[in-house]
């Protein structure tokens, strides 16, 4: 007999009862979210995919939803020790949930200090405090100038999608729109891929990919391969979740950024299997650096070898050549995610040399959380170019992640929380670019250095969703985001890509704003293809565009970060 702890979350908008085939032969209404390891013990909950029962050291944790459904007995002879209902929208008892709530958007203190200082700088404009605070930071750009530019851009982009393309389309002549495609956003996992529900969701996801490609003109895709969703219980590669999408991309000559490793796109960042962590003599502590000679690092490298062996066995060189860039770990130098692990340069180099054997002509794509890790990435690239000048010249990409409409918080050094885009003392919303300017024109210096090294800059993640909510951004917010990314982050005159993050949610919700956003993306991709805003583009109305894509809309299930 096992001991089972049942925790029920009240339902949100979706009704699990509408998907009875998904819950067949399971606890009724089960939905598993990913607990993290306790900071003070290795005897803590292990990871699990939604829809799984996850193993603990001495008991098993099953999370139910919706709470109004009565749980039935499990297949095994488990003892239900506790049934607890917790309101998803309210505070969670941290101790009782094994530290689950502590991990949300945790960052290093150094990061929080930067944002706090910048917030004080911005908030002190027009006061006697401003000169004092500004003098504490070297090379600080005028705060009023930064806010004036932001507010002017905000005013200029407060227009429709059609007007935005007409007004600013020429500025994007060298930039195309790509997307980060995450199959798990459609609730796909190895556990359900062969069920009726899984097959239905696969159809929805594939239709979403087809819409992005055929209707929005998106030809550049970042595909993240999650370790715990590509290996079976025996540790063998099972590519079932990703194969339909990878096959479509390769057969339609799309440009793929192949993201792999411990950390890949999507919360909670690191996606290692339960079995791997339980097999370790010592689980890496939160916030630790992963090295290639560590036990966990060795396990990750062996997994990557298996993954690449599978790809070489099942795909031709021509098909694998559609991988035009590869991403060894997602935001590898940023301590973000359920464990806050970061990757050593030695470990990254091991991954890169393994990937080069499979994708010899592909670029190396490493992304930064805004400007925070960009210099560290450029330092690493400079080392690669020094050691291997012929191997990596003109193959290095710095991807900047920017989510200006997300409600991201960081820890205040004084013990509180800061909303980084609504910082202390500021009576308006700002973005990452304002911070970068306030702290000494960070992005401008990053661009100059990247150009000298021959490193290409792209927008690795341009967030079109608002973290922690079901809200979608407006067309005005979208216009402002991409215009400022184009002007302030990307290198002028250099061909580039803005990879959208959260696009599946935009395609799912058919609001007027989302239709306008889809229209802008389609027009900018057409703009890139022709290198000019043609009269045909200017006369192509959003209403005609929406009629064209409407058959592709599906009832996709999207889960929050």
List the defining traits of the structure above.
eight-stranded parallel barrel; disordered N terminus; alpha/beta; 19 helices; 561 residues
Describe this structure in words.
With 561 residues, the protein is of the alpha/beta class. The chain has a domain at 1-103. It is built from 19 helices and 16 strands. It has an eight-stranded parallel β-barrel, surrounded by six helices. It has a four-stranded mixed beta sheet with strand order 2-3-1-4, with no helix packed on it. α4 (161-168) packs parallel to α17 and α11 packs parallel to α14. The two termini are 34 Å apart. Mean pLDDT is 75; it is low at 1-110, 120-140, 535-539 and 545-561.
- Work out the helicity level: 25-40%
> How far do the termini sit from each other?
34 Å
**Cα radius of gyration in angstroms:** 24 Å
Largest sheet at a glance? 8 strands, parallel, barrel
What structural class do helix, strand and pairing data support?
alpha/beta
Q: What does the average pLDDT come to?
A: 75
Contiguous helical run count? 19
Q: Judging from the principal axes of the Cα atoms, what is the shape?
A: globular
- Unreliable spans are 1-110, 120-140, 535-539, 545-561
* Quaternary status: single chain
- The strand order across the widest sheet is 5-6-7-9-11-12-15-16
SS strand fraction: 5-15%
Q: Could you give the count of β-strands?
A: 16
């Amino acid at each position: 007999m096992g001991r089972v702890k049942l925790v029920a979350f009240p339902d949100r908008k979706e009704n699990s009862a509408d998907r009875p085939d998904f819950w067949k032969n399971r606890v009724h209404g089960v939905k598993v979210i990913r607990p993290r390891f306790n900071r003070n013990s290795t005897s803590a909950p292990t990871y699990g995919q939604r829809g799984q029962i996850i193993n603990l050291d001495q008991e098993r944790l099953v999370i139910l939803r919706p709470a109004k459904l009565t749980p039935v007995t499990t297949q095994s002879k488990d003892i239900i020790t506790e049934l607890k209902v917790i309101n998803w929208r309210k505070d969670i008892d941290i101790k009782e949930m094994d530290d689950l709530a502590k991990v949300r958007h945790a960052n290093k203190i150094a990061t929080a200090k930067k944002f706090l200082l910048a917030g004080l700088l911005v908030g002190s404009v027009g006061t006697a405090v401003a000169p004092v605070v500004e003098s504490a930071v070297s090379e600080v750009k005028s705060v009023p100038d930064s806010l004036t530019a932001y507010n002017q851009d905000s005013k200029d982009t407060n227009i429709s999608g059609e007007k935005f393309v007409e007004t600013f389309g020429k500025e994007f002549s060298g930039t195309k729109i790509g997307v980060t495609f995450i199959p798990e956003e459609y609730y796909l996992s190895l556990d359900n891929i062969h069920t009726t529900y899984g097959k239905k969701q696969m159809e929805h996801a594939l239709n979403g990919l087809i819409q992005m490609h055929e209707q929005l003109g998106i030809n550049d895709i970042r595909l993240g391969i999650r370790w715990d969703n590509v290996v079976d219980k025996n540790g063998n590669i099972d590519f079932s979740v990703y194969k339909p999408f990878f096959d479509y991309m390769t057969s339609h000559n799309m440009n793929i950024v192949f993201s792999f490793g411990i950390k890949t796109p999507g919360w909670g960042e690191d996606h290692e299997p339960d079995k791997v962590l339980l097999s370790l003599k010592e689980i890496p502590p939160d916030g630790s650096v992963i090295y290639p000679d560590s036990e966990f690092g060795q396990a990750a490298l062996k997994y990557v070898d298996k993954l690449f062996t599978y790809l070489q066995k099942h795909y031709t060189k021509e098909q694998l050549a559609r991988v035009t860039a590869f991403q060894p770990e997602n935001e590898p130098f940023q301590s973000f995610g359920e464990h806050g692990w970061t990757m050593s340069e030695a470990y990254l180099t091991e991954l890169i040399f393994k990937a080069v054997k499979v994708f010899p002509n592909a670029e190396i794509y490493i992304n930064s959380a805004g400007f925070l890790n960009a210099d560290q990435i450029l330092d690493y690239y400079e080392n690669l170019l020094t050691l291997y000048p012929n191997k990596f010249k003109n193959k290095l990409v710095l991807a900047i992640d920017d989510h200006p409409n997300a409600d991201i918080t960081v820890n205040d050094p004084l013990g509180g929380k800061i909303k980084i885009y609504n910082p202390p003392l500021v009576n308006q919303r700002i973005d990452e670019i304002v911070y970068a300017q306030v702290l000494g024109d960070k992005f401008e210096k990053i661009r100059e250095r990247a150009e000298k090294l021959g490193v290409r800059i792209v927008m690795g993640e341009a967030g079109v969703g608002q973290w922690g909510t079901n809200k979608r951004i407006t067309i005005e917010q979208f216009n402002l985001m991409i215009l400022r990314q184009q002007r302030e982050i990307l290198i002028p005159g250099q061909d580039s890509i803005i990879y959208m993050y959260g696009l599946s949610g935009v395609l799912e919700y058919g609001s007027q704003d989302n239709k306008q956003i889809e229209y802008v993306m389609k027009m900018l991709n057409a703009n890139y293809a022709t290198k000019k805003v043609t009269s045909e583009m200017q006369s192509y109305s959003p209403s005609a565009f929406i009629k064209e894509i409407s058959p592709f809309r599906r009832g996709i299930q999207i889960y929050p970060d």
